[in-house]
Amino acid sequence: MTGFSRRVEQVSISGIREVFEAAGEDAINLGLGQPDFPTPQHAREAAVEAIQAGEVDAYTSNKGTEELREAIAAKHERDNDLDVDPGDIIATSGGSEALHIALEAHVDAGQEVIFPDPGFVSYDALTHLSGGTPRPVPLREDLTMAPEIVEEAITDDTAAFVVNSPANPTGAVQSPEDMREFARIADEHDVLCISDEVYEHQVFEGEHRSPAEFSDTGNVVIVNACSKAYSMTGWRLGWVTGATDRIERMLRVHQYAQACASAPAQYAAEAALTGPQEPVAEMREAFQERRDVLLDGLDEMGLDCPTPKGAFYAMPKVPDGWVDEVIDRGVVVVPGDAFGEHGAGYARISYATDMETLKEAIDIMADATAAVR
After folding, report:
1. pLDDT in tens, 243-274
2. Using an 8 Å Cβ cutoff, are 182 and 191 in contact?
3. 34 φ, ψ to 5°?
4. Among the residues of 209-277, which ranges form H helices?
5. DSSP character for 203?
């Protein structure tokens, strides 16, 4: 009997999914990593119009439509002050595929990939699937990743390191000084920096800066998506951009794994990027208001929580048994160790839910906190 690849055997089903399956059907879900807002109407209409006009019945270019890539390039100029050639962009099936092809194209068997711990669950799994060796590094007390820790972890076998700001699961936002240092590290050590900027527009304090702004060598690749900014998780439309030679190698992986991103989603994304941006600001303001309510609630419970300056997650330190008690009482949260060894003793709470539901969940979490103390 044909066995299974060692790469796949090193990867397990996400701990986040296990929590969902263990929760009751009526549970309040504070574990979900997606906005609770509708996709902007003008983006939906653009997809419908393209479908009705028969414009989505065939493959697009492997890289995506020229109009979408021009819209992405214009977005980088508008938001990041970056001059990106539309030819150096690949539209992908969500940010997840962008991460996948970036690692597949740059990591050889046994080479190391450095990433934050706690960090997004895909970093470890996709490193294994590319044949690489994960090198998670612990975070600062405020849950940001220290450039000096990354630099100390680099060896002759290091292929890449991942920066994620704003971050999942912590909500932490790296400073511009950190981003400048990450670019320096990539340039001086000649290793790839993969900058995961999917939560770019959910910044409440500070500012989002990309390491690509500070790099002179082409050693930074940006991964982004419409998923979080425009509440388009189900549309599966992301992109990756970088130096021409890197894009050409990533395209080799993308064209055989995916051929092209979904055509209707490309039209929706183009409209989202070029149309009114008020929905983005409205979501950000709502998330910040919810964050403040959640932080006040956690403080009243006596739980220490580094202030999340972006995304829509909080990661408080919690006592033993807290996560199980909260889930048993009907609120889904995710144990911190689902995001890495150094996440133990924390829990990830998503506040991508309406205020009334969030307040109800806070009351339940308060009762659970009292019960385990």
Report:
1. 999 999 999 999 999 999 999 999 999 999 99
2. no
3. -145, 145
4. 244-257, 263-274
5. B
